[in-house]
Write a structure and sequence with these properties.
The protein is mostly beta strands and about 750 residues long. It is about 15% helix and about 35% strand. It contains ten helices and 34 strands. β17 and β18 form a beta hairpin. The longest helix has 24 residues. The N and C termini lie far apart (about 75 Å).
Length: about 750
């Protein structure tokens, strides 16, 4: 054997080990971190001007509280522990200035409108209890307050119309435990194994049948995770109309299909064996079938979205810039997410887009379910906006914004990360064409849009509110519903009112109706409403007169009055309906923005109903009215507890006034019918439960403005489409081969 051979083999092995080590090290080397690049944005207005719409700061709220405490001459109790007979501050929010003042400031060089707050106070400790609304200003140092209740509503707001405070719910809970349930100890112990901790209740609304009533059914559930689908069959009607809690009383009791005068009668009937008892299997604390804990372990990571060169939008205070878009955002304590001064390419297209109300009407053969008509604005859509979970509720790399409110307390509260903003690649082209006729080319544009989102959890329902801004000048307002289905105890003919979703659980049929306010200003303040549609006409073929052709033609109509512009929920509406400007585009057409509604609404409550006027906005899929400062909202937080004498009745807005060349508002209603089914267990998915509207340019531009987007792709058969300068998509292996800078996961929702 050659004596050098072992050395040669040793050297060869060392070289091989070195090569393999280099390969492994190169594979394991981390990609560089993504670095932000200078943002390309159009100048679209001053960010400081948008502060005229900004939510109150915690400091401003605190100043208003101090002012009210020192200047009303009455004692104000913290609402979190107030009795019905106390005086307290229910909420403090921004008083949005009058539109004329704001436009004079934004467009006419006028003075900035004074910054003011709207304070809602309950006065229970006085001879004539009522609800009073004050405008307090100027902020940040208040010096005046003005009672605007009569001016705003045409009269005082009776005390019985006040939304229930959390303290009142707690007081009802204490009444049920210490007074009502104390009258039926044997029944509760033997049927429910009641120990004062294993039962929770859910309220219903409205509270009775007549103006002045405050009688509420409270539905009992097992106190477990996802309790909404764990009814036990017991419901109690409590009369809590008296301001003296000691005067509250049980008006009726319902158990497993039978009604009783009170808990004493229920106990007596049970002890005497005259009750049909349906024992419900005791659920574990996690709720068992209602638990949202995953039934499968984590596996391969789901796809993530990131921005290789950083965000292409900016958020400064309450102002957002994205490509050609700019707008201000805010969060109303009652109605939630709202936008102001929405501009595209520097020109205002809408003054305000805001949520107005979320209505749910239930059916059941149990008293609580059949009497429920929730108007969520009364509970507070903005108040119940929840902290968002990074990576699930919004993309992980989204921008998260804290919001603040003052509701039912004397101190402002912060909702961490309760609003998110992100640009989303929707995974499909906004437009494209592949040409294989005559010339060979491909042209397309990535459909990347900006999303502003908040999610409100009002009781059992979670509403995901989105406003989406597209590169072609379109705006989408969308709501997706999830959360738990509300339920009744299954008995008797319950299947007439829903589906059985568990052993004793009836998923009850209900409608969802969402109302939006859309104050479009297309090409200026004055607009008209125009309808375009189609009709077939019969004609003879000019080249062959013996032949008949059925051809579609364009129909056009100007809708002159509010009555003509009020389209009932299930009626046929023109498929192209748009706000028309007084200016024309290059091709001689009136510039416009089209309203396109996506809705699968159930039927509206019959107008013969004694409470229908309180929700009369839901009669219409679309109603266009003259904009009036005295008609700022389609409903009122006071309508929930007195729908029989509504504080605001939207039907009164429609009085056949002319709407030609006027400042107009579109009131849009979208909704869907929900018949809960077994796949709503443990809770409802968003798929298929999404409704809303689109605002689309209609001859507003001379051509599609997205042709000027920096995201366009175009190459021909004769070009080198692998070259970056020809096709930016070809550069992705270089420009997007980086690791996103994901911040550590945090959550402040508890």
């Amino acid at each position: 054997m050659n004596p050098k051979l072992p050395y040669i083999l040793l050297v060869g092995a060392a070289v091989l080990i070195f090569i393999l080590s280099c390969m492994l090290l190169s594979r394991g080397r981390r990609s560089p971190s993504c670095e932000s690049q200078p943002r390309i944005m159009e100048k679209t207005g001053s960010t400081s001007q948008s502060l005229v719409f900004a939510d109150l700061t915690p400091e401003e709220m605190a100043q208003v509280v101090r002012y009210l405490q020192g200047n009303l001459g009455v004692q104000l109790v913290d609402a979190s522990r107030a009795k019905p007979s106390d005086n307290c501050i229910a909420s403090i929010d921004l008083q949005v200035p009058a539109k004329a003042e704001v436009l004079q400031f934004l467009d006419g060089g006028g003075a900035r409108p004074p910054r003011e707050a709207l304070a809602v106070l309950y006065f229970g400790n006085q001879p004539g209890p009522n609800v009073t609304e004050y405008v307090v200003g100027p902020l940040p140092t208040p010096a005046y307050h003005q009672d605007i209740t009569v001016q705003k509503y045409g009269g005082k707001v009776p005390y019985h119309r006040r939304p229930m405070l959390s303290s009142e719910y707690k007081q009802v809970g204490a009444f049920l435990e210490t007074v009502a349930f104390a009258a039926a100890p044997t029944f509760l112990k033997e049927v429910f194994e009641y120990d004062s901790t294993n039962v929770v209740f859910q309220t219903t609304a409205p509270h009775g049948f007549y103006s002045g009533d405050r009688k509420s059914w409270f539905i009992m559930f097992q106190n477990v995770s996802g309790f909404f689908v764990h009814p036990v069959g017991l419901e109690v009607l409590v009369d809590h109309s008296s301001l003296d809690i000691s005067q509250w009383a049980v008006s009726r009791v319902f158990y497993n299909g039978q009604y009783y005068r009170d808990m004493v009668q229920l106990e007596s009937a049970y002890v005497q064996g005259r009750i049909s008892v349906e024992k419900v299997r005791k659920a574990p604390r996690d709720g068992d079938f209602s638990s949202m804990k995953p039934r499968a372990p984590s596996a391969t990571l789901f796809p993530l979205q990131y921005e290789p060169q950083g965000p292409r939008y900016s958020v400064r205070n309450n102002h957002i810039l994205f490509q050609a878009w700019s707008f201000a955002f805010g969060m109303s304590v009652n109605t939630g997410l709202r936008l102001f001064d929405i501009r595209h390419k520097g020109e205002r297209v809408a003054y305000e887009i805001s949520v107005q109300e979320a209505l749910s009407v239930y059916g059941s053969n149990c008293p609580g379910g059949m009497s429920t008509r929730y108007m969520d604005g009364s509970f507070g859509i903005g108040r119940y906006t929840s902290p968002l979970v990074r990576g699930v509720d919004c993309p992980y790399s989204a921008t998260y914004v804290d919001t603040h409110s003052l509701s039912e307390t004397l101190r402002p509260s912060k909702r961490k990360a309760s609003l998110c903003i992100f640009e989303q690649n929707l995974g499909s082209p906004l437009r494209r064409h592949y040409s294989n006729l005559q010339s060979l080319y491909y042209g397309g544009l990535v459909n990347s849009a900006l999303v502003v989102r908040s999610i409100a959890t009002v009781g059992n329902h979670d509403y995901m509110w989105d406003f989406i801004f597209y590169q072609n000048g379109a705006i989408e307002g969308k709501v997706q519903a999830t959360g738990y289905a509300s339920s009744s105890f299954l008995h008797g003919d319950g299947l007439r009112y829903g589906n059985r979703v568990w052993e004793h659980t009836l998923g009850t049929i209900h409608t969802h109706s969402i109302n939006y306010k859309v104050d479009l200003d297309v090409g200026g303040l004055k607009n008209s409403l125009v309808a375009h549609d189609m009709a077939f006409e019969m004609t003879r073929a000019p080249w062959s007169p013996e032949q008949q052709i059925e051809r579609p033609r364009l129909t056009k109509k100007v809708l002159d009055t509010e009555d003509q512009a009020a389209f009932r929920l299930q009626s046929k509406m023109p498929r192209y309906i748009y706000f028309a400007a007084n200016s024309k585009n290059k091709w001689g057409h009136q510039r416009g923005y089209r309203i396109q509604i996506t809705s699968f609404a159930g039927d509206h409550v019959p107008e013969a109903s004694s409470m229908e006027r309180a929700i009369s906005w839901a009669r219409y899929q679309l109603a266009v009215t003259r904009r009036k400062e005295e008609e700022p909202t389609s409903t009122s937080i006071y309508n929930q507890n007195d729908p029989w004498s509504p504080t605001v009745a939207f039907a009164d807005f429609i009085n056949n006034e002319t709407i030609t060349n006027e400042d107009l508002v579109a009131w849009i209603t979208a909704g869907f019918l929900h018949i809960p089914h077994s796949e709503d267990i443990p809770n409802t998915v968003t798929v298929g439960n999404s409704v809303g509207f689109l605002l689309r340019p209609y001859n507003y531009y001379d051509l599609d403005p997205s042709i000027y987007s920096h995201d366009g792709v175009f190459f021909t058969s004769e070009q080198d489409f692998t070259a970056c300068e020809i096709n930016p998509i070809a550069c992705l292996p270089k420009t997007a081969s980086c690791l996103p800078n994901f911040p550590p996961f945090t959550y402040d929702g508890f």
